[in-house]
Design brief:
alpha/beta; globular; 3 strands; 4 helices
Length: about 130
């Protein structure tokens, strides 16, 4: 993976479009990348350096993993994960196919929402051995 593998289009808008956009909320750049060829962290860091605000990592096309299967996968850290300051999410190839298809039509911007729940009210017990 290299910075040349990614490009983020800089859209130009008129003042009327900018005014309308600010009324309905600010849109951000969410980049979609395909899983493979390098670490998750490297993909996200390159996208962040290019101006992405979040990254959707789409599983490999050949993968048969479902959304439920992917919920159990821990996205590995290559040692540089602490430098990542933007959110990223891994989604199934099937779910990603819908997003890729919509983005290729380009009749209108593809708008997605990234949201997740943080469990609250759970007690975690940790034993430290020194």
């Amino acid at each position: 993976c290299t910075p040349d593998d990614y490009s983020i289009e800089q859209e130009r808008h008129s003042e009327d479009e900018e005014s309308e956009k600010s009324e309905r909320g600010k849109l951000i750049d969410i980049v979609m990348v395909r899983r493979g060829n390098c670490s998750f962290v490297k993909k996200v860091q390159i996208a962040a350096d290019k101006g992405a605000h979040a990254v959707i990592i789409v599983d490999k096309e050949s993968s048969t993993l479902t959304s439920q299967d992917l919920q159990r996968i821990i996205v590995a850290d290559d040692g540089y994960g602490s430098q990542i300051k933007i959110p990223s999410v891994l989604i199934s190839s099937m779910d990603g196919a819908h997003l890729f298809e919509a983005s290729q039509k380009r009749a209108a911007p593809v708008i997605v929402e990234l949201s997740w729940e943080v469990p609250m009210g759970h007690v975690v017990q940790v034993d430290l051995w020194m």
